[in-house]
Amino acid sequence: MFKEKPDKKLLVGLAVSAVCLLLLFRKIDFAKMAAAFAGMDTRYLAPALLLTFVSYFLRALRWKFLLEPIKKTRLSNLFPATLIGYMANNLLPARLGELVRAYVLGRKEGIETSAVFASLVVDRLCDGFTMFVVLLSAFFTVRLPAGREGMQQGLVTGGYLTFALYLAVLMFLTLLRRRTDWTLSIVSRLLAPFSANASLKASALLRSFISGIRVPAGAAGAAATAATSLLIWATAIWPLDLLLRAFGVELPLPASMFIMVFLVFAVMVPASPGFVGTHHLACVTALSAFDIAGERALSIAIVVHAMGFLPVIAAGLLCLWRDKLSLKQISENNESGART
Predict the structure, then answer these.
(1) Which residue ranges does UniProt annotate as crossing the membrane (predicted)?
(2) How far is residue 143 from each of residues 92, 220, 253, measured CA to CA in Å?
(3) Are 118 and 105 a contacting pair, CB within 8 Å?
């Protein structure tokens, strides 16, 4: 699972992070940055940290709902596995934390790792759909400072386009689930003129994907999944608002939603483990839309990144130590399982 030599994707990610850091620090006055840190109101850090862990606990709770079709699992196993998985995502390249998370829970609950991993695919889909809602809400409700009317109109246009995309994806997945053969035949016909091989591969991949997807049965399961998804992102966005206030920046809540959208897109860009550089640049760029730039914006970005990444790394390593596991051991077990 973990290669001894860094692959090309990791090297590209390291290069991207280095460029982002160069752009961020090339014109920074470190004395002004030190002054920004010195003026930070640390009383906001504790509630921001608490809400961050509440968000992870809600992720474990949603995961419990998603695993209901497979097995009734325990939160006492789900929460540590979630922390370990996100810790691994922050330390390892290529989002290998998802495999780590699936292995740890599968080991504790006696479930096949592949079945657990399939539930994480649904987990990511839930995040994607919820972020569409957050993105739409931010684009339609955020108010930028005077002089940025063009950007404001662009956000509204982006909101409409995103809403259309959201509906299209939702309709496609619904059809793929309910009328699999008919939908795959349409996909094959659309792709066939370009490449017959690509058409066959896409159909096989989509069939395998949809057959492995299991969603909570009934209205109650769907409602619980939707509610926890909204609460997960609410408790992830709220700390942003608190950290802005820690630096004396008071903006309406949609501004924090706007910043979160930038941060989510930042973790999709190839970067070093922990998304160093890309995460900071995305935060600074979003803050500049509200006329917060330079040393103050970068100071906020550093604290936002540290609060979002360092505590879960520490908690995940603690859970890993408590369970007498190591990332190397998990790697060896996954590789031996793949060979058998």
Answers:
(1) 44-63, 116-142, 154-176, 212-239, 251-269, 300-321
(2) 37, 36, 10
(3) no
Alpha helices in 253-293 (DSSP H): 253-266, 278-288
SS3 state of residue 277: coil
Q: Long-range contacts of range 334-339, CB-CB < 8 Å, 24 or more positions apart? A: 334/1, 334/99, 334/103, 334/113, 335/1, 337/113
And the tokens for 135? Answer: 């993105």
CB 216, CB 229: distance < 8 Å: no
Nearest to 65 by CA among 233, 232, 224: 224
Can you give the pLDDT at residue 256? 96
Break the chain into its structural domains and give their ranges.
8-339
For residue 25, CA distances in Å to 20, 287, 295, 325 come to 9, 16, 9, 38
Burial classification of residue 45, based on how many CB atoms lie within 10 Å of its CB (0-12 exposed, 13-18 middle, 19 or more buried): middle
Task: Return the residue matching tokens 């370990």.
Answer: 84
Angle between helices 113-141 and 97-109 (to 10 degrees): 130
Residues of the chain falling short of pLDDT 70? 1-7, 94, 211-212, 217, 331-340
Report which residue type is found at 173: L
**Per-residue confidence (pLDDT) for residue 340, from 0 to 100:** 46
Query: pTM of the predicted model, to two decimals?
Result: 0.86
What pLDDT, on a 0 to 100 scale, did the predictor assign at position 217? 67
Q: Say which residue the tokens 């094959």 belong to.
A: 188
State the greatest distance between any 2 C-alpha atoms of the chain, in Å, as a whole number: 64
